[in-house]
Each structure stands twice: as C-alpha cells, then as structure tokens.
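Possible regression after last week's pipeline update?

I re-ran a chain I had predicted before the update to compare outputs. Posting the input and the new output here so someone can diff against the archived version. Not blocking, just want to make sure nothing changed silently.
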Amino acid sequence: MYLIDASVFVFRAYHSVPLSLCDRDGRPVNALHGFGRFLGDLLERVRPQHIAVAFDATTVHSFRNRLFPAYKANREPAPEDLKRQFGLCRELCEALGVASFASSEYEADDIIGTLATRMRAAGKQIVVVTRDKDLAQLVRPGDEYWDYIGEERFAYERIPDRFGVLPERMPCFLALMGDAVDNIPGVPGIGRKTASLLFRHFESLVHLYEELERIYQLKIRNPGFVAAQLREHHERAFLARQLTEIACDMPLDVELSMLERRAPNLSALNALYDAAGFGRLLRNQAERIAASIG
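New output (post-update):
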C-alpha cells in the first residue's frame, strides 16, 4: 500500500519547475507538471496495486490550531497560483486512477496515518512516500519510509539511524525538540542529541516524567539542567506532544477496494493537459501506464 504525501512533491515542483510554464490564459501550471511527472514515474516504476494520495486542504484550520492557535502561524500563505494548482493535482490523481483525500479538519499526515492503520489491519504492508520526518512515526515492522526525492528507503529497523529514535517514540522526541517549521515550541535547551538519548532509555513522555530521577544515571551532559528544564516546561512538553502525534483514527469513509489503482481516464487526462497546454511527454506516459494495466 503506497501512501503519498502530496505537499512534498507539489511544493518541490512549484519551486523547481519554472513559473514561466503557463496555460493558455497565462496562469502557472509548473506544480501540476512537476507533480504529474512524479506521480506518473512512480506508477510506472512500482505498478502499485493499492495507492492513495493525501492533500492538505488547509494548513491553519486543523484541530491542532484549536489546541495551539500559533501552530504553523509562522508560515506565509501559499500563493494563489499554487493553491489553484493543488486543485488541479487532485484532478490529475482522479484522471490517473489514483484515490486522493483531503480534509478541512485534519492534515494530510492524519489521513496517511488513518489509512496506514486501517490498511495494516487489513493485512497490507505500508510504504509512506514523503520527505517529512513527522511521518516516520507511522512506520511499523514490515513497512517502509520512502524518501523518493533522495532515493532512499528506510525499513522500521533503520528509522533510528535516520531520524534518531524508534518510530513509536518520534512524537515524544519531536515534542521535546520542538519544530520550528510547524511553530511548535519544545523544551528550551533540549536539542536533537539530548532528546534522542532520552528516548533510547524512555518509551514515552509519560514514562520519562514518571522517572525523571533516572536522568542522573544516564551518560548525558548536564543532567541537572535537563531535569530542571523538563520540570519547568512540563505543560509545554505535553502540549507539543499533542501537536506532533499524527491522528490515526480520524473519521474517513474508506475501504480497501477504494484504494485499488484504476486504469487512467485518458480522455479526462487529455482534457486536463489541453487546458494546461502540455505536450506529449505526460500523455505518452499516461498511455504507457494504461497499457500496462490492460
């Protein structure tokens, strides 16, 4: 089961493909083209039986903003021409025969987490296609984290080598460190190295706070300072933990059959590509994909 974090690839395309690539009305379609190349290449490369793409409908109105209004408030609003292209990318998924999801209440990470949990229960192994460290927390034995851009794949056992902790401990690890990208405040003075060391010894934030005195037994720099910071910023740490944990139980009307890859709708694709002013490159790719499905 391939679960794709769309934002990584749409944003990358928007910033790497020239804005001069425009449709007949002069509107940029660079993100659409780059995302289409990526998704078509993946479909040709792995020929997945089951696949889904998760989109962010919003970055400032999820349930996390009610918990912490400053969540992601440091981000500049997406340009209007990029917002429009996100919609076109969803149209592209549909035309390529790939299920896509978005929610006004939850983020793409939560969609992927919920799909991963449900499909794993249905016997599927999960491949999370992204470059976002947050999604590493979803990997379980038998799954993979695929950094498609960096051309690296990480099985469950390799996640600590790449990110610093076991997947199950990643939300707590991120909560102590904080995350400047998402404007999540961590515990001051605790960085990646200290957080990684702590969660080699403690299973969770709850476990850590239950046995804070054990910190003095660890080979850690300035354990007194670390313990004091944790005590002082107890509430902040647990708030951050609520923000960093991916929701894997969001309400989502989905079943396995809905995630089966379908044959591309070449008529719909050609209409989309005609409107965008695209040539033969993506059309030829779609035709090859359709022929491979039969």
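Follow-up from reviewer: compared with the archived run. The radius of gyration is 21 Å. Marking as no regression found.
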